[in-house]
Amino acid sequence: ELLLHKNDIQDEGVEVLVNTLKGNETLKELWLGENQITAPGAKSLADALTPMKNCKCNLQKLSLLNNTIGDKGAEHLAKALKKNQFLTELRLNHNSINQRGGKSLASALERNANLETLTLCNNNFPKDVCKTIKDAWGSRVG
Predict the structure, then answer these.
(1) Which of 1, 29, 71, 101 is most buried per CB count within 10 Å?
(2) How far is Cα 77 from Cα 90, in angstroms, rounded to an integer?
(3) Helices and strands counted in the chain (H then E)
(4) Residues 34, 69: contact at Cβ < 8 Å?
């Protein structure tokens, strides 16, 4: 477990961290709340979460609370979720995610039955996107 809340890591620091993660099979939890991480940082994390031949990342829990990954960052993570089989918990509260990012996450949920916890509090989803996410969560086969 690596707790790095409030360390001003930003996107550049995430990229450095991810290069270490790609070869790490033992780290299971990464907490990156309040680090000014935006879409590029979320893309770096998504790349690490996407199964690849040379990637040994088995991260199970990822927290990005109180960053600003926005729709683009949510889209990057959603793409990774469609393929990732290890992540069981993803916390994205307070990340300025709107309609487009919410729909991307809902689409990913339909293909990922391993995720057990997804927190999305205090983002900017319209009611129809909330329903889409709820329906996607309920339709998962696991």
Answers:
(1) 101
(2) 10
(3) 5, 5
(4) no
Contact 44, 77 (CB under 8 A): no
Helix, strand, coil percent content, the chain, rounded in steps of 5: 40, 10, 50
Q: Parallel, antiparallel, or unpaired: how do β-strands 117-119 and 61-63 relate?
A: unpaired
Cα–Cα distance between 65 and 67 in angstroms, integer? 6
Q: What is the pTM of this model?
A: 0.95
Q: Which residues of 8-44 are buried (b: 16+ CB within 10 A; e: fewer)?
A: ebebebbbebbeebeebeeeeebbbbbbbbbbbbbbb
Provide, rounded to the nearest whole percent, the portion of the chain with pLDDT above 70.
95
Q: Integer distance in angstroms from the first to the last C-alpha of the chain?
A: 26
Residue 115 tokens read as 């995720």
Nearest CA to 124 out of 100, 104, 90 is that of 100
The H-or-E segment that residue 10 falls in is helix 10-21
Q: What is the rounded distance in angstroms from the CA atom of residue 122 to the CA atom of residue 38?
A: 16
